[in-house]
Target: MFS transporter
Amino acid sequence: MPTATKIRPRTLVRASGGPRYAVALAVDALGTGLLRPFLLLYGVAVLRLSAPATGIAMTVGVVTGLVCMPAVGRWLDRGARSTVVAASMLVRVAGVALLLATPAGHVWLFATAALLLGVGNQAWPAAHAALVATVAHGRERDTALAAGRALRNAGMGVGALIATACLAGGTTALQALAVVTGLAYLTAAALAWSVHLHAHPAATRAEDLDGETGPAPRMRALLSANVIYVFCLNVPEIALPLILVTQLHASPMWSAAIFVANTVLVVTLQVPVTVLMARFSRRTVLALSGVVLTASYLGFLAATSLGHGWGAPAVAAVSVVCTIGEIVYAGSATALVAALAPAHVLGRALARFQLSTGFGLAVSPMAITALAPHGPAALWGSLAAATLVSAGAVATEKDQVAPVTRVAPPS
Model:
């Protein structure tokens, strides 16, 4: 199987949507990093809401935002690309504007703002993946998707650092961060819309082999496994801080260091690792990522048994393995869905994949916090077992070809 052996920046930028689109991604990520990690704090400190009410409102917003995905998939399959990306950003502009207009104590307005932010955050990944898949193909598409993730993580990391430095300003600083976030989303939306990328439905049908068309692939095992796989994205942010602080009684600095290391590794290694793995099939790589994640969960179980003293350094060391598993997963999962789906149903396939991702991200904090009080074996043992079963399901699932209907190629 031929693979790319070199990473050419200009080619990568073109395959990712072009220079303007790359700038739009960077600006959008920067704005997301400014506010998203501190949205809970905004509700508590600025709007004077209780922490439980704020958390419930945010969760409801994220979960309800998933309802928009079928419509997003159909919109993409009608050919829209940059318009959907821009729309996902504009919805977040509306969310930030409502957030700024919400008076103190109004939880329902805050919940509505969280809903709009949730809709934008859920719609963006599928829209972005569809846009990249329209510009690039094959392994070049995989690398472009990886580059987009690296760029997004870098922008969010920088935004979070800026926001952290500004938090000393109290509620005024949080409101200022919200204003800057809204402006960043608006700028990014304008840049994304200016790309004017559209895929004509007739042309996408012609891209399918021999003019065949059919429904989106079911991918049942893949979508079910993905719900478990995405737990790895919340391990550095939720599981490890919880274990380090409450069970190992370690300094919060360990959690911060692990989070920073995770971000740096994703930014620097996402593209090279994706290129390196291109010599294997995407399904094999995705199954391998599950094995790596399983090994890291078992490593966390062993590290936590060391107790106070050596436990925190051991957890930090194992977190590198977990991040590698995350990188391999992120570089193969969306790419596999894009490769399996016929061009004319790409949007619906990506939307279904985002539904499984969003659902996994929504339930993982609840599952992690429910398992953690029962001890390391309950948490890490359960995650390891579920992830290993998921990896097996991914490896053994056959790429089914749905019944097709012949269509005449476009004249």
Remarks:
- The CA atoms of residues 27 and 188 lie 6 Å apart.
- The chain is about 75% helix and 0% strand.
- The beta strands are 212-213, 405-406.
- The chain has two domains: 11-199, 213-396.
